[in-house]
Batch of 2 targets.
Target 1
Amino acid sequence: MRDQQRARVSMSKQLRKKRVVIKLSGSIFSNSARSESIKEYGLMITELNRRVQPVVIAGGGNIARHYIDLARELGSDEASLDILGIEVSRLNARLLLHSVSSRVYPKVPTNLDEVSIAAETGEPVILGGLHPGQSTNATSALVAEKVKAKLFVNATDVNGIYDSDPNINRHAKIFKMVSIDKCIEVLGKNSSMAGKYDLMDMVALKIIERSRIPTVILRSSVTNIVKAIESDTKIGTRILV
Ligand code: UTP
């Protein structure tokens, strides 16, 4: 490579915004969702893109679970049920695309190579699931690994990771910070049936561990997500890697 060309490549790398991967809970797109709230997330993507490059993964939510439950009753195998869930999360990603009025990568990538190509444009990227057998959380961890994200924000419908199930134990305590080993211990026993992957599945945890991806799990709201990305405010649970 000639000197001039090399200098240009290194300059474009320096100018590249830091990437942040944001998993948005499927509950945002549930059948009771309002367009105003989806619009807020669209505006958030535009705002964040002034300083970082958001790569956003939409979850499947209760619409995915509804389809999965119906197809399970019809006798579908688990892999096909996963594919149904992926299709719904991609539909949610498409819906989110409609809420972004500024520049955004116009297509929903369907594999990791496409995610890389999309991310290289510097525009915000929005996608859903990628591979059967995992959750959109695992997909998000893989994407964070692939695009070398400086942060993975898992915006979900709980406040963070607890030492036991807060739905069962009302004395359960939330971790402000937790080691990845402890996370694997607490969350590792979760379900691996289509539509029933919990807060973080094992695939997600192992990817976070192997690539030391700084990760925050928080209750999804525009305010919380922006705080986690742009301020030092401690919010949700931070996984120490
Ligand atoms: P989600 O991971 O979004 O599940 O995908 P969820 O329970 O709705 O999570 P939240 O509520 O958004 O946080 C729905 C289903 O789609 C399949 C799985 O069966 C998953 O449970 N799926 C999704 C995959 O198999 N692979 C993917 O990459 C994504």
Target 2
Amino acid sequence: MDKNITIPKHIGIIMDGNGRWAKKRMLPRNMGHKKGAEVFQDITRYCNELGLESVTFYAFSTENWKRPVEEVNGIMSLLKDYLKKAFDYQKENNKIVFLGDKSAFDKELYDLMIEIEEETKDRTGMVLNIALNYGSRGEIVRATKNIAKMVKNGAIDIEDIDENLFSDNLYTKGQPDPDFILRPSGEKRISNFLLWQIAYSEFIYMDVLWPDFTRKDLDNAIIEFNKRNRRFGGV
Ligand code: FPP
């Protein structure tokens, strides 16, 4: 990467196109997810090498439970395999945070997620957010309920509610907002991803399907981001 390029602090990635990748090859959809999970691992490593502060991958939405049971089961077993290997990331010193409601997962996955968050919480390297059973509207409702409880029990006054307090009640507490959201596979939707956090984020859409996504594609996205003129509402 050219040394004049500014490396973003936080990138959000919607891993899309696994199903189409498999279909093109006459393979079951879960083969697309399997390849997608390999790409997830490689791109995570690359984000570490680039020196990002945070990266967020959208791996499973609250709506994805509606998929056929074999597909959901296939994704769950992939997640288990990968989360068991998550401790390989030790050398990268990643703090791993799960965005979403963990209580919907089976005990094995739930325990793994709690253990990984606990074991990695004091790490000082890149924050690796994995959105699982995540939906941004649900996250916003959850933050609102937390804040309402604080008002009800007298911990804060209504006047204390501001944007910072709201951000601190989201799963991404303490992290910079994403500089850009990347969606491969040609789709141009946000799909209930980080709605609060993306107020000033750039959007970068690419035609490549996620299982074909490479480090070079991420370089190109960062180069494209560098060409954008972010004014944050100013001139
Ligand atoms: C979207 O593609 C992808 C998913 C809903 C699942 C993503 C899951 C993984 C990459 C595997 C597990 C992740 C980790 C963190 C190890 P799609 O199925 O909607 O593709 P399509 O639009 O082509 O059908």
